[in-house]
Write a structure and sequence with these properties.
This protein is mainly beta. The chain has one domain: Beta Barrel (Hypothetical Protein Pfu-838710-001), CATH 2.40.320. The protein is built from three helices and nine strands, in the order ββββββαβββαα. The protein has helices at 65-71, 117-122, 141-147, and strands spanning 2-8, 21-31, 34-40, 43-49, 55-56, 58-63, 76-89, 93-100, 108-113. The chain has a nine-stranded antiparallel β-sheet with strand order 5-1-9-8-7-2-3-4-6. It starts with a strand and ends with a helix. 17% of the residues are buried.
């Protein structure tokens, strides 16, 4: 189960070079339900996500590089490219700061995952976070891959 909140980020925080950064490319084979392929550095995954906004089922299965490259041209819409910074947030969270590249630039989103819905609802975001878009499917990556930033 994935429980997360998502926020627009109006301006980048300082000192991003201090945090781990992942290079991600992902595409969508299906949007209802969501079936995604992802390359994260040199790891490859096939992911299923159920319907939902803040809470939804998520299953990740490993893929080989060859399987990923075979499925990549079958992706519907644009391939999403982004840099993901992993920023620790007390007491026990990690901000996943996604800086989108290519057609989705200059979009910047932050996601924070939780273990319970109550924890997610009680979360008070840092001051540098912008609008909470958790309950808007406009900013789901699967929707962005189909529509872009319209």
């Amino acid at each position: 189960m994935e429980i997360e909140r998502k926020f627009l980020i109006p301006s980048l925080p300082g000192h991003l070079e201090e945090f781990p950064c992942l290079t991600i490319e992902q595409g969508y084979l299906c949007r209802e339900p969501v079936v995604r392929i992802r390359r994260q550095e040199e790891e490859y995954f096939l992911t299923y996500k159920s319907k939902g906004l803040m809470v939804r089922e998520e299953y990740n299965l490993p893929l080989t590089k060859e399987a990923y490259l075979h499925l990549r041209p079958k992706a519907d819409g644009i391939l999403i490219a982004k840099k993901r910074y992993l920023i620790p947030l007390a007491p026990c969270y990690t901000i996943e700061l996604d800086i989108f590249e290519g057609e989705l630039a200059p979009l910047v989103l932050a996601e924070v995952e939780f273990t319970t819905e109550a924890e997610a609802k009680a979360f008070v975001p840092p001051e540098w976070f912008g609008e909470d878009v958790t309950y808007s499917n406009t900013y789901h990556n699967s929707v962005l891959s189909a529509r872009g930033l319209k």
